[in-house]
Amino acid sequence: MHSDSNVQKTDEPDGDAPPPSDGVRFEKLRNGMAVLFASKTALVGLVLVMFWVGTALFAPYVTSYGPTDQDWKAPNQGPSWSHPLGTDELGRDLWSRLAYGARIVLVILPVTDSFWLPGGTALWGVFASLLFGATLGLLGGYRGGWIDEIIMRFLDAMMSVPIILLYLIIVAAIGASAVNVVLAIAIVGTPGVARLVRSLALDIRTRDYVRAAETRGESDVYIMFTEILPNAKGPIIIDAMLRVGYAIFAMGTLGFLGLGLPPPSPDWGSMVAKGREFILIGSPWAALWPSLAIASLVVGLNLLADGLREEAMRYQ
User: Fold this and answer.
1) SS (H, E, C) the chain
2) Where is this region: Disordered (predicted)?
């Protein structure tokens, strides 16, 4: 008679098992890309997003001018061979300003005039909101009780303030700069992330592997960030894509209201605000192109997130 204990052991993860090989990692990557390309919606979104990512990365090579170079002989000009998208009121090339503006959104965070961090302003803002929101959501969802009640009531109070008004209050209080815009995006986005992570944690904390970790005597921090969070990453990643779009839209709104990046930074929202003054005199280009840039990038991120969510639901 054979014992069933050997069968049970084959189904349990081996703590001493070697890490996945390169072939396993490649297979997972290939399966992930197959899911992405299976959705036409996600594919269209990916093309739009990658266009702006590529433009941001290679801005110095796809433009003939710097973002602040001025052509005094050609202010408020329409598209031409020398200026493919036209110029603004100071004769600055609009394509160059769009490309370098994309760098600020997606590639670099200008901390000072001479120092910057890799990663765009919108990405840093969303990352900070994910960090704070996930921590609060895990703490409330896993621990529950009075801790959950205090966290949720505090976040409910934050969410009761209209989003645009909350952005204006924060940036007007601490000043307009790229770092302060990141801080504003993080503060505004934290409640939504926390509520999402909390709802996922409430479900995952009842799973067998969480109970097994508790039985082994693992700490709450270990369980929250090693057992619960990795198993909730799918919905969180999709939500993060949408939040990057919201952050870009928020940056444009703040720039339009004069609370974005200070001039002469090629802030898309500021470009729209200045360009709209010249629409009625027959020069709509300075307002049109940055508006289309914001719209196309936000729509691309939304399409990418929606397509991935639809495909993920099909494979569940």
Assistant:
1) CCCCHHHHHHHCCCCCCCCCCHHHHHHHHHHHHHHHHHCHHHHHHHHHHHHHHHHHHCHHHHCCCCCCCECCCCCCCCCCCCCCCCECCCCEEHHHHHHHHHHHHHCEEECCCCCEEECCHHHHHHHHHHHHHHHHHHHHHHHCHHHHHHHHHHHHHHHCCCHHHHHHHHHHHHCCCHHHHHHHHHHHHHHHHHHHHHHHHHHHCCCHHHHHHHHCCCCHHHHHHHHHHHHHHHHHHHHHHHHHHHHHHHHHHHHHCCCCCCCCCCCHHHHHHHHHHHCCCCCCHHHHHHHHHHHHHHHHHHHHHHHHHHHHHHCC
2) 1-24
